[in-house]
Amino acid sequence: MNRLRSPRPARAILFCFVVPFLVGIVPAPSLAADSSKEANLASPVEGSVWFDEDAGELVPVEVDDQQSENENRDSRWTAVRSNKSRTAPAAPAAATNTGFSFARLFGWLMLGTLLVGLVTLLAWVFTNSDFDFTPGSVEQSLLTGEQLDRQTRQRMEHLPEALRDTSVNPRAQAERLMQAGQYNEAVIYLYGHQLLLLDRVHWLRLARGKTNSRYVRETVRSQPDSGQRLQQTVAAFERAYFGRHDLSQAEFIRLWQSNAKLEQDIQSADSVRKPGAA
């Protein structure tokens, strides 16, 4: 019985040695085959124009860049940045000196013409304006003397046409004619004298085109008493000049006395207007 059982351990030992040996030997051919296949697959371009067999490497292919250069090529929105230097744009041609000088000269001429026109306009306005830019003051030449100051002669140009004799003092001429008995002519100069006085203290404003009644209304609004005295002179002037009525000596003497009171009122008002007057 013991002899029949002895071969089983021997088989087991043989199996343990043989099986690992077979396992290690059998896969070798398949692995070699796989390696040869991979070697064949690793060089698919061997024998073609793209493979250099002497160097054992691929032939590089040169490709030209077909993208056009533009000023936004290096923008952050562009994925690919180019390091190629861009040529600077050509500078615009400079303007010729002849054109620049002509434009400059034309501008200066226009500016000079504008300034001359402005000065001329201001001079015309100041010369023809009815507004008196000097402070109101009664010059003694209006009351006494034969010569008139320059400003008074300029203001006489705004008197009615019959009163524009700038060669004489209206008051002095009225007094001479009164002494000569020429009362119709004397009242003309007396009226002009009163208008110049009232204009100087701004109780009326001399201007061509104004009527006698308008002068009276302006004076009445400023000084009622002086307006009434002017009204008396205007009434006598219109009767003598337009109506051709002769004025009597007594009537003219009353006008002359009324004129003396008007002069006193104007001198009193003028002394108050002067700086430092009591």
From TrEMBL:
The chain crosses the membrane at residues 105-126. Residues 1-32 form the signal peptide. Residues 64-91 are annotated as: Disordered. It comes from the Bacteria. Keywords: Membrane, Signal, Transmembrane, Transmembrane helix. Residues 191-257 form the Protein-glutamine gamma-glutamyltransferase-like C-terminal domain. This is Protein-glutamine gamma-glutamyltransferase-like C-terminal domain-containing protein. It comes from Rhodopirellula bahusiensis.
